[in-house]
Design brief:
Rossmann fold, transferase activity, 12 strands, 40% helix, six-stranded parallel sheet, 371 residues, transferase, 14% strand, 2 domains
Length: 371
């Protein structure tokens, strides 16, 4: 099977796209053409794929990226059996002549509008109606894959859910340490970046440092640089997912201080699953799914939204109780290995694409009965 995968919004090494789905396709013996913003993100494409470079769609001015995407997708779908796109923007740039097309829905765009500070208020008010129309048209014309079961409410049909899980090592990682916190993922105000900077300031006299691993929104970067210059934290910027998670191993705990916004409220907390997979306790705000997973498996602590002092006290309790954090890390690892190991879900992902790529059966001819 030849698969064309496209994004102009996500980083080319996005964990779901590159490190889970494309890796699963390659491991299953399929050929992949990948349309993505390699140059913009300073990424060298892996040799196993055919890469087509495009500009990245950023901010309000996305016309250039969309025009380039139209041309790139026309090239990418030549001889392809299936086209897999990851952005709602690409639904506006699909080639007229194309193979079976699949949209992987892994964001609630309407729910995330409050976190997009660059959008003028008038645009933010108009977008929900426009987005719903685009989603409805896509459902009628394309196959859909959903990253969250909660996304089913946005659509009328029954679409497969391929959750955004992670690779869980076959052997248990080292036990958690005592003097380092870690955060892996994109940094923004809604993801708790400002609280984490203040937390680092609060914990510095206690001998606990903070590692932040991920790209950051423009409005957050000055505060992160200031925190790094003051010696409060280490900000590593974007690091490919596999390496970032290896860096997380041995930390005292992993932070997930997301705010209570609609886009996060019903999402599977991949960050939490990744910490569990690496054998470290999680400190999370009480978003329903995060709190459910952490509470059920007793693999971390739940703290109030925006309460830096409560987070600091949770960190110090774990630091002062090595047995408790070791047990939490082990419980989290066992839960992640048993229920959230990506290869267990990759089989369903591959099976759906293989099924959809097959040509539709020809209609049966009427049987002619001799007179």
């Amino acid at each position: 099977m030849k698969v064309c995968v496209g994004t102009i919004v996500h980083h080319p090494e996005d964990a779901r796209i590159m490190h889970r789905q494309i890796r699963a396709l390659l491991d299953a013996g399929h050929a992949v053409t990948y349309v993505a913003p390699f140059t913009h993100c300073n990424v060298t494409p892996p040799s196993e794929i055919t890469a087509i470079d495009v500009p990245r769609a950023v901010g309000l001015r996305r016309g250039r990226a969309l025009n380039a995407a139209r041309r790139a997708l026309r090239r990418g779908v030549k001889d392809a059996d299936i086209l897999l796109v990851h952005d709602i923007e690409l639904l506006l740039a699909l080639p007229r002549r194309r193979p079976t097309t699949v949209w992987d829905v892994h964001e609630d765009l309407v729910g995330s509008l409050d976190t997009k500070a660059y959008l003028p208020g008038s645009v933010r008010r108009a977008l929900p109606h426009i987005v719903r129309r685009i989603e409805g048209r896509a459902e009628r014309r394309l196959h859909l894959i959903l990253a969250e079961a909660a996304y089913r409410d946005r659509f009328s049909g029954d679409h497969p859910v391929i959750p955004n899980t992670t690779y869980v090592p076959a052997t248990p990682p080292p036990p958690p340490g005592a003097d380092r916190l870690v955060y892996v993922g994109h940094l923004s105000e809604a993801r708790g970046a400002l609280e984490m900077i203040e937390l680092a300031r609060r914990l510095r006299p206690e001998g606990v440092r903070l590692d932040l691993i991920g790209a950051a929104d423009p409005d957050i970067r000055p505060a992160l640089r200031d925190g790094q210059r003051q010696g409060l934290l280490d900000w590593y910027g974007y690091v490919p997912n596999g390496h970032a998670l290896r860096m997380a191993e041995g930390a005292l705990a992993g932070l997930s201080l997301l705010h209570d916004v609609p886009n996060y409220r019903q999402s599977l907390p991949t960050k939490v699953i990744e910490y569990m997979a690496r054998g470290i306790p999680t400190i999370t705000t009480p978003l329903p799914m995060a709190a459910s997973i952490v509470g059920r498996s007793d693999c971390g602590l739940i703290v109030p939204y925006g309460d830096v002092e409560a987070v600091a006290q949770a960190v110090l309790r774990l630091r002062d109780d090595p047995e408790r954090r070791t047990v939490m890390g082990a419980r989290g690892y066992a839960e992640a290995r048993g229920h959230y190991h990506w290869p267990d879900h990759a089989r369903d992902f591959i099976a759906h694409l293989e099924e959809w790529s097959l040509p539709a059966p020809s209609p049966a001819l009427p049987r002619v009965v001799p007179a």
